[in-house]
């Protein structure tokens, strides 16, 4: 979906969002209250420039507008795979972005992620997945790694991975599978403005992604393993 069409539907009360080199930033009115908006468009890969721009926008919001909600609009093909970015330490820039999102949450900012087009790899992990809650549009594309690439890395035949993906959401792309795993809190349809108002109202400090994945049957062992590690006990199978 085009970001301008999306923001028209999300913000009937108006917005002041601008796009520069596929980086989105600005403010919008949601239920009569200002919300900071950052994000990406054009399936852009996350290189050092956009990672730093997003981090700066979040820190500026924390510094100048304490407590203001933050909406992250996600459309990215993932981490930019260039020698220049790798040599300059793209991993550190993306880690910095993730830390800034975490800081905002710790300082009382509700951070909502919305995947409106593509969400791949590290570009998604350090934005939407680390937010207080993440949502997606039904036509969005979400995956951490494509099955051909996964086959090359794991040495498991692609045919076997394709077979596993039919029943196991961990191997399968798409918003429905990430909903089952708890990575998404919901899939938005119909009135997007009302969905955003509800998401901001219902957001909490508690991270329920592992619990949601277990409740929905997509990640049965993540929560028991985490709890066992925390308590020093044994894992009980689901």
From TrEMBL:
Protein name, UniProt field: Malonate decarboxylase, gamma subunit
Domain of life: Bacteria
SUPFAM superfamilies: ClpP/crotonase (SSF52096)
Residues in coiled coil: none
Biological processes annotated in GO: carbohydrate metabolic process
Record InterPro entries: ClpP/crotonase-like_dom_sf, Malonate_gamma
Species assigned in the record: Massilia timonae CCUG 45783
Gene3D superfamilies tied to this protein: 2-enoyl-CoA Hydratase, Chain A, domain 1
């Amino acid at each position: 979906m085009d970001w301008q069409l999306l923001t028209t539907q999300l913000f009937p009360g108006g917005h002041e969002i601008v796009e520069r080199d596929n980086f989105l930033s600005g403010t919008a009115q949601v239920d009569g209250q200002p919300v900071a908006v950052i994000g990406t468009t054009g399936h852009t890969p996350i290189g050092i420039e956009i990672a730093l721009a997003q981090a700066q926008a979040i820190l500026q919001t924390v510094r100048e507008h304490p407590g203001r909600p933050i909406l992250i609009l996600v459309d990215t093909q993932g981490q930019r795979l260039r020698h220049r970015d790798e040599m300059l330490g793209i991993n550190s820039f993306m880690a910095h972005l993730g830390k800034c999102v975490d800081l905002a949450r710790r300082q009382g900012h509700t951070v909502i992620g919305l995947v409106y087009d593509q969400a791949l790899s590290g570009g998604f992990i350090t934005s939407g997945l680390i937010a207080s809650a993440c949502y997606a549009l039904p036509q969005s594309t979400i995956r951490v790694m494509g099955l051909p690439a996964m086959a090359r890395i794991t040495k498991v035949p692609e045919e076997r991975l394709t077979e596993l993906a039919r029943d196991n959401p961990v191997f399968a792309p798409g918003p429905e599978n990430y909903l089952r795993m708890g990575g998404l809190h919901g899939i938005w349809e119909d009135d997007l403005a009302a969905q955003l108002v509800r998401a901001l109202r219902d957001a909490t400090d508690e991270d329920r992604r592992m619990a949601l994945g277990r409740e929905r049957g997509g990640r049965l062992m993540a929560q028991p393993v985490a709890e066992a590690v925390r308590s020093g006990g044994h894992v009980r199978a689901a």
